[in-house]
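hey so i finally got around to running the thing on that chain from the lab meeting. sorry it took forever, my laptop kept dying and i had to restart like 3 times. anyway pasting the input first so we r on the same page abt which one it is
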Amino acid sequence: MVIDQKIMQKSSRPFVRQERDLSLEKESLQIDRISRQTKGGIRFRFRVLILVKDKEKKSISFAQAKGNDVATAIRKATKQAKKRLITYFIDTPRTIPYHITNHFKATQILLKPAPAGTGIIAGNTLNLVFKYLGVKDISAKVIGSTNKLNVVKCVFQALDKITGQKRSNW
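ok and heres what got predicted. didnt touch it at all, straight out
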């Protein structure tokens, strides 16, 4: 962060300019408009589910946040996701080592290794997660609920099982 000297001289509070993190790549998986009924009328807010990838550290994360407008919600979600970046594979694998089944709430996923040249055979949400991880060949299926937040949490739990890492924050 760089403190701007001219603005610091004019006001008592320093203006802090935030530097952009160029190594981060982010994709919004879901943007929802939420409404609540109040005495004065209907109030609208926005909820965003975002997937973040750090190219340098080869780490990935997700977060969900709410805000009064979409830009605020994306900023909040990105800030949360940056704090929880996880490195699953040091060297990007071509595929996963073995077949795995995982469930989270009403969502169940099946992940299968695939032969070279197959590509990513998966639904929209899973496809994006595996692209961000750098996995080239995999076959995946979502069974049950296709709620995007639950699908992402389920995939991250399955990756924890594959790599042997234990996390309780999903």
